[in-house]
């Protein structure tokens, strides 16, 4: 059964690398307007799940539907227009290191639209200001930015194409508590201003409490819990409680 | 042994698949032609010094060695055509490919490998960009222009170097030298070398790009990939040179 209203649907997806089975039959659905947080320890397969949803990896089994289209058999060229409807924020930001901040943020517009230079610059400034950055960062290279600023530029780059769904891979990893809090607030604000639907992959419980509508807990390749934030936090599943209390063994 | 054979088969298969992807993606959007021009500058203009220095000295030393030995048989008059044939058919294209190719391909591997390990290639893909069209095809097209041009310049300077040495060291008559050379050397000799350089350009960039895209294991893996590229390119040029020579002899001298 598939749901036509779901923007993202993952149905019994399995993925292994060599002999290691990372995902053992994972299913989820993301509807418009909701933020789903996928939690799990290091190496639990959270990032693999996100890369499968973006079509950067192909599943070994199961099906992934983006905006109603099954993507597991699509070629790279057929995936490209679907990917343009997703905004992917990488864990390390993955900014193009030979391009300035302005060129990085403008990249999707320069590649896919015929918008003029002045209009591109205005939009770049608008989206940078949305993530709390000022005009003075425009000529800087990624190597001249702090970790928190790189993350923000990565978010601005993902947002400027005005995607239907945002995918965040560990948005607070490597950030100090202040920056982690700011990024969490930023993700919450984006919901009302630019893109109201997102999947956030993280092991950060504070971030989860700030942004989540629903939460999935990935343990040993399967969802040990999937539901509303309060329901998951009060789950009686021993593995889920062990993970949430920081006592889980991966 | 099994692992080595499997890795080797996967490498050749991977380069073959990349070649097929490049052939399918040759139709570039107009804005990407700017990238081809940039690559021509990076590969060609910045490699001129290496290619031309190597070729002029190769021509000089080849003439010097040949003159001393051919004088023993009273054949010193034929040093001109000997040097020209060797340079045009073999030394010009092969030396240019090995020297410039090693430099260009290792640079490509380092750049693409660095992009791979920092997820920049995945970022391109996630932004809906065809990374083969944007990163690989412009480099291959640039190489198809750059290597024949560099080889032409290397040919000219190599022959000139031989002539200068014969004049300065052996007191050869320049007019007679040129006359003998142009009598024995025909345009097909030049075309053979240029034809090879086109294939060398494709091999060099495809190997450099594949090793870059295939980089794994962080900065340590990047170092390994870059070193492997220099070895792969050198071996690729030397081995393919035999088969290309055979091919061009069949194509250009069908009677032999």
Structural features, described:
The complex is a heterodimer of chains A (250) and B (256). Chain A is α/β, with parallel strands linked by helices. In chain A, 37% of the residues lie in helices and 26% in strands. Chain A has nine helices and ten strands. In chain A, the strands form two sheets. In chain A, strands 6-7-8-3-9-10 form a six-stranded mixed beta sheet, with helices on both faces. Chain A has a four-stranded antiparallel beta sheet with strand order 2-1-4-5, with helices on one face. In chain A, helix 4 packs across helix 5 and helix 6 packs parallel to helix 7 (205-211). Chain B is an all-alpha fold and 256 residues long. Chain B is 85% helix and 0% strand. Chain B is built from nine helices and no strands. Chain B has helices at 2-24, 33-43, 48-71, 79-117, 120-126, 131-170, 174-184, 187-213, 218-252. In chain B, helix 2 packs parallel to helix 6, helix 3 packs parallel to helix 6 and helix 4 (79-117) crosses helix 7. At the A-B interface, helix 2 and helix 3 of A face helix 5 of B.
